[in-house]
Design goal:
There is one protein chain. The protein is built from 6 helices and no strands. By secondary structure, it is mostly helical. The two termini are about 15 Å apart.
Length: about 130
């Protein structure tokens, strides 16, 4: 279950990035909806992964020690998911602005995409097969 969720989470990452670039290039309601909803799927998969991930569960068991030392476990427990949730909020705010035809949508999509890029664990394999 864990490996399958991790594979899907990894795969959806590329769709999120592609749709984010599309929403940035053409900040319309349709493009924004693809970005926001792909990111929603990504966050839901991430939440499910948190429940089944041995790394995440082990880090939560010793949370104080995990947060005090910079490590891969700390990254996933304290930083990765926060960036994803904030990016999700920005993407949906951008979608709301795009539906109203406001130019602010592009800025919100750009901020969401930047946060997604910062939240991706680039030290992990780029594609898991």
């Amino acid at each position: 279950m864990y490996e399958a969720l991790l594979f899907i989470h990894n795969l959806v990452r590329w769709f999120v990035l592609a749709f984010g670039l599309l929403a940035l290039w053409r900040p319309g309601a349709k493009e924004g909806a693809f970005f926001a909803h792909a990111l929603t799927l990504q966050v839901v998969l991430g939440i499910l992964l948190a429940f089944v991930s041995p790394l995440f569960q082990g880090a939560l068991a010793s949370l104080e020690a995990t947060l005090q030392t910079p490590s891969e476990a700390r990254y996933f427990v304290a930083e990765h998911w926060v960036g994803g949730l904030v990016a999700l909020g920005l993407a949906h705010a951008g979608l709301s602005q795009a539906r109203k035809g406001k130019p602010r949508a592009r800025l919100l999509f750009a901020l969401a995409l930047a946060l997604v890029l910062l939240s991706i664990p680039w030290f992990r394999p780029l594609l898991r097969l």
